[in-house]
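Structure tokens please, single chain.
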Amino acid sequence: MALFDLPLDELRDYRSDSVAPEDFDDFWARTLEESREFDLDARFEPVDAGLSTVHVYDVSFAGFGGHPVKGWLRLPADAKEPVPLVVEFLGYGGGRGLPHEDLLWASSGRAHFVMDTRGQGSGWGGGGGTADPVGSAPAYPGFMTRGIDAPENYYYRRVFTDAVRAVEAARSHPLTDASRTVVLGGSQGGGISIAVGGLVPDLVAVAPDVPFLCDFPRATTLTDRHPYREVGLYLRTHRGRTEEALRTLSYFDAVHFAARGRAPALFSAALEDQTCPPSTVFAAFNAWAGSDKAIEVYDFNDHEGGGPQHVAAKLRWLRSYA
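Here you go.
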């Protein structure tokens, strides 16, 4: 696919038309306060993954509504003192996988906490193990329209809350340095990391790659790829509910969390990305409130973004922060 979105010089100045609800901050403060009424109950069970340089722990903690959420914590085997912490969120449809997967961050001398995404884990990778026990009104298959009838019911209210609690759980382990916490992820994981960057004020860095869940008004009308297309297909059947759906989505638009994010940030965008169009990524990047921010642009890539080259860029960049 050739370039289909705005030219790069226009992307660098692009701003979303999405408007944050007046009660955006109150909504999220109330949501997190309600979830913190439940004991975090973070548990770390050692796992024999057959590895000699990395120790793995099977983690559970209480997320939204006190619901149990799973994760993996991977630590350098020789860690005796607290080490910098990388908390990772996953792409759409994936789960935490198997304990021996993804050893990069632990191999770099950091603790690596990966959160299982509730209800997902059956689309790719090694699977997941976290249920989403909350039902919803009629929805299109997938996750984008679950509970879209109201912000209080929307699926990503639960996921974003789980993600904040995941940071709290990971920080509770004695070998993680809470003062050097980084959040990152690609696609859906990138969108979640932006949300956490706006909700957790003391992170040292945020690194969203080709992030999803950004600039819903533009994304849902610009691309016909899933997952954004799920919204259009829902509205094709539920005629007349566009305003209601966009109101709900406005509480979860990463653009508004970015406007509250102050940590140093490294974004990435791919100019041929039809899954997460580059203008939607730049909308979040340009909204990011912190002054220490950069974006890597991959001119001829689709949703794979920068791939291993961008992993190397993140490794270099994080040396300054964690």
